[in-house]
Amino acid sequence: MRKTTFIQAINEALREEMRRDERVFLIGEDIGYYGGLFRVTRNLLEEFGERRVIDTPISEQGFMGMAIGAAMVGLRPVVELMYMDFYLVCADQIFNQAAKMHYMTGGLLHVPMVIRGQQGGGKRYGSQHSSCVESTFAQFPGIKVVAPATPYDAKGLLISAIRDDNPVLFLEHKMLYFTRGDLPDEGVEYTVPIGKADVKREGKDLTIATFSYTLLQALEAAEELKAEHGIDVEVVDLRSVTPLDMETVYTSVAKTGRLLAVHESQANAGIGAEIVARIYEEAPYLLAAPARRLGMAPASIPVSKVLEEELLPWKNDIKATVLSMLK
Amino acid sequence: MTEPSLKASVPSAKAAVAEPTAVLSTEQLLPMYRMMFLIRRVEESLLELAESGKIGGAMHTAIGHEAAAVGMAAALRKEDYLTCTYRGHHHSLARGMDPKRAICEVLGKAPGFAKGKGGSMHFVDPSLGLMGANGIVGAQVPHAAGMALAAKIRGEDRIAITFFGDGAMYQGVMHETFNMAQKWKLPVIFYCENNRYSEMTPISRTSSVSDLYLFVRAYGMESMQIDGNDVEVVYDAITKAAARARAGEGPTFIEGITYRLAGHMAGDLETYRTPEEIEMQRAYEPLARLHQKLLDRGVSEEELNKIRAEVEEEVQEAVDYALEAPWPDIAEAYTDVYKV
After folding, report:
1. B contacts of A48 (beta carbons < 8 Å)
2. Is it the case that residue B4 has pLDDT exceeding 70?
C-alpha cells in the first residue's frame, strides 16, 4: 500500500489497462501532448504513441461518434470530456447512439466504451463548467454510471468500466483530484465491481447514501455530528449510480431506521429522489422516520465564491439536514 | 416562395469520374439488375403494406436510389464496414440481407434480424458488414469514420463507407467528421445520395452551397460529383475511392446525384413537387437505365423478364412469410438493454 492522489489512480488504471489490452485507446481534447487539462493522461502518449492516445480538435460530437464506431467493431475507447458539462454538446451520440445501440439492434451490436471526465463545483468555474450530470444519464437504460470518491475505488472502478461490454460513464469530481488515499502497489491488479456500494463509515442513528465528492463532505459532517451532538451516522458510498445498489442501503437502514440521500446535482428529479422513492416502494417498513434527499437548489452554479458556497449542498447543509431529521 | 427548379436531366458529372473506365461485363451487370429489381419490389411491397396499415411508425423507401447500393456492394468487400441513414433498406439488401428477415423486421416480427426492435430505420447485420442504419440524420457518419479509425489502429486492410442524404450535409457532426477523417487520412468513403430534397424541402431553399461535393474541398478532401443513377458510374467511383482508402491516401467524398421517386416516407403527401416532375425523372431512374443498357448490349427482353419473374416470386414469398411470422416473445421487451 501507498498513498496516491485521485489523479494518479486514474492515470495508473489507464496505463495498466492499455498495457494489458491493446484494444484500449484514448481519445479527447488535449490529452496527448498536453497530458490532459488536469494532467490525468500525462505520460501516456509517450508510452503508447499517437495511434492509441489521440488528440482531437474541439469536436465533441465527432470524436464521441468516432469512438462509438470504433467500439462497435471491437475496440475499447476511453473518451475524455474535458468538462462533463460538454456531454450536452454530444448528447445525441451518447444517448441516442451509444446507450440505445445494443437494444435497437436486438443485441447484434454493442458499444464497449468509457466516457470519463471531471465534473462538479467548488472551483469557481461557473454555470457551464461545474454541473454534476449523473441523473440525466440515469434516465437512459443501456449506459452505466459510476462516480467513485476515493483513489482506490477510482482505479478499481475504471478498470471494471474499461473491461465492461457496455458504455460506462465514469465521473470524476474536480474537488477529488488532489485528495489522497491508499492504493495497492502499481501493477498489483484489483478491480472494484460496478453496481456495488460500500459502507465508508459505520453508525447506528441515520444512514447517508451518497457518492462522488459529497461522500467526503458527508464523512466530515458525520465526524462533526459525532463530536458536537453525539449522533452516529452511517455513510454508504453508492459508488455506482447505474446500477444502483439499493440492497446495501436497505441493510444499513435496517440498522438505523433513517435515510438521507445526498448529492451535489439538482435535488429536483435527481438520484436522491429515486433512492427515496425506491425505499418507499420496496422497503418502507425499514423507516422509523420519513426518508429525505438533499441536493442543489434550482439554480445554475455561479462564479462568485460566496454564491457558489451558498448553493453547494456540502457539509453544513448535510449536518443541518441530519439534525432536523433527528429532532 | 418559388417553385423548386430541378434540372430536366441529371446534372453532368463535374469532376474526376465523368465516364466509367472499369466497364462491367454483361455477366456482372445481370445480377446487379436482379438485385436492383429486388430492392425495387421489396420497397414497393413495403409501401403497399404500409398503406394497408400493417406497418407503424416511419418508413423511408429508396425507390430511385438503388444504383448507389448495388454499385457499392459490387465494389466493396464483404468485410468492409457500412453505416447508413434510415433510408437504408437498399444498402442492406444489396449487401445480402435476406428479404424475409428484412420485411419481418419492418413489420416488427420475431424473425426480423433485430427481433423487431429496430424496424425500418435500424437495419443492421454485422455478419454482412452492416453496422447500423441510423434514425438521426448524420449520426452514423462519425461511426463509419470510427470504424475506419479502428481498422487503422489495428493495421487492417478494411475500409468503411457511409451513406447519407443531402439533408445530412447541414449537420455539424458531418463537418467535424470530415475534418478528422481527412486530417488522420482515415480509410473511409463518404457517399452522399443527393436526391435534392431534405425530407420535404428542396435543398435549393435552405442551402448556401449548390454543389455538395464542394463542401469538403475546404478540408482538402478528394471529392467528386457523379451520376448516381448509373450503376456502373457508382461502381467505378467507389472502386477507385476504396483503392485510395486501402492505399492509405485517405477519405473520398462522392456526391451521387439521384432522385427519390416515392415520398420521403410512407404517407408523404408530396405537396412539394408535381407529378410532372416525378414523371420527368423516370427517364433517368437507375433500374430503367440499366434495363435499357442490357438491351443495348444484346440481352433479350425475355431473359430480363425471366429474372423479374423470379424476383417477383421471391418477394411475394418473403411478404407472405413475414405476414404469417410470429410476433416476438413479450419477454424480449426487457432483453438487450445491457450486454451481459
Report:
1. none
2. no
